[in-house]
Amino acid sequence: MDTIINRTILQAIIKKMLPNKVIILLGARRVGKTFLLNQLMEHYIKEPVLKINGEDYASIEIFKTRTVENYKRLLGKNKILIIDEAQKIPDIGLSLKLMVDTIEGIKIVATGSSVFDLHSKLGEPLTGRKFTFYLYPLALSECAQFENMTEIKSKLDERLIYGNYPELLQYSGNDEKKDYLNELVGSYLLKDILAFEGIRNSSKLIDLLRLIAFQIGSEVSLEELATQLMISRNTVEKYLDLLSKVFVIYKLNGFSRNLRNEITKTGKWYFFDNGIRNSLIANFNPLNLRNDAGELWENYILSERIKFQHYSKLTSNNYFWRTYQQQEIDWIEDRGGKLYAYEMKWNKAKLKKTPSEWIAAYPDSEYQVITPDNYLDWILNPD
């Protein structure tokens, strides 16, 4: 399927392409960063653009000589510099700082597939000189470019199983999708961690991800994970941090403001993409043959909400809420001075009322149950 997708953040990036500024584009491998760069180059087709791949050894050698004269020779007449996989170039932040400080009118875009590789290297040197964007697997707002609402609804079950990586669009068969996701997990998922953190054996990382995959929507104990993996708690904490920085998983902390019995010490972990999660546990069975449909729904809809928040610039602090009396809410948004509580329910027959302790503690908050009937409003339309 040859589907051309205009990624949502393309126009936002173009607006921030200002002279002597750097655009940082972060996202997991294979989510479409390179394709987005090509779209960006098409927009500037009448302007001279230099594109460099940071994984190319010659590019690394060029940047070793950190002088204004060297970089001016590199750029020539080009006023736009695009560096794909910029994290592979040593001290790239210092090099880019020198460029934007000394070469008048230069516009730079640098991409990376992990936070700890690129953002940390660019953050301090480029303070006040950069704009950061995140690219995720396809959001439903992007799928709406080539699917109507009926088609989107009809593909919900498929997306709960296979996720939303862009390249899946070219595969019509489920076996092809499985093969793609398995290859993605096997060859790309942990590439940056293994390359940059000196972790020689990925087996513990994969085992950790599998344990997380079976605990979607549940609080995770680092001590229990450490015991099961036979590694230290500190190592588990380090691995989880690294996995979040390569955009495989993300953490949701507990919310507390008023009650002593609100749980805040443990966290929940979710995957940015359902297909990755299902590949890790080797289960691509259809929903009617699974006992984790509720977990798949929760993981999927929360990842879509994160995309929606980022792309629509909806600033929010996100949490879950639970008390020691087992009252809980899946998703809390603290934004604009107000609390919004959301419960994710795949089975509409099991809808539940607002927890009484929540109402008593936060009477001015709003509460909504998100189901397959109303989820499109929640992840497609601004509040």
Features:
42% helix; 383 residues; Rossmann fold; Arc Repressor Mutant, subunit A; alpha/beta; 5-stranded parallel sheet
Overall mean pLDDT stands at 90
Structural class: alpha/beta
CATH superfamily of the largest domain: Winged helix-like DNA-binding domain superfamily/Winged helix DNA-binding domain
Low-confidence stretches: none
The SSE string, one letter per element, is: HEHEHHEHEHEHHHHHHEHHEEHHEEEHEH
Q: Order of strands across the widest beta sheet?
A: 6-8-7-9-10-11-12
Shape: globular
Helical content (DSSP H or I, runs of 4+)? 40-55%
The DSSP helix count reads: 18
| The CATH C-level class name of the largest domain | Mainly Alpha
* C-alpha termini separation: 33 Å
- Supply the CATH architecture of the largest domain: Orthogonal Bundle
Percentage of residues in strands: 15-25%
The radius of gyration computed from the alpha-carbon positions, rounded to a whole number of angstroms, is 22 Å
Explain what this protein looks like in three dimensions:
With 383 residues, this protein is of the alpha/beta class. Helix content is 42%, strand content 17%. It folds into 2 domains: 10-134, P-loop containing nucleotide triphosphate hydrolases (Rossmann fold), CATH 3.40.50.300; 148-380, Orthogonal Bundle (Arc Repressor Mutant, subunit A). The strands form 2 sheets. The chain has a 7-stranded mixed beta sheet with strand order 6-8-7-9-10-11-12, sandwiched between helices. The protein has a 5-stranded parallel beta sheet with strand order 2-3-4-1-5, with helices on both faces. Helix 5 links the parallel strand 3 and strand 4. The longest helix is centred in the last third of the chain and has 19 residues, at 293-311. The two termini are 33 Å apart. The mean pLDDT is 90.
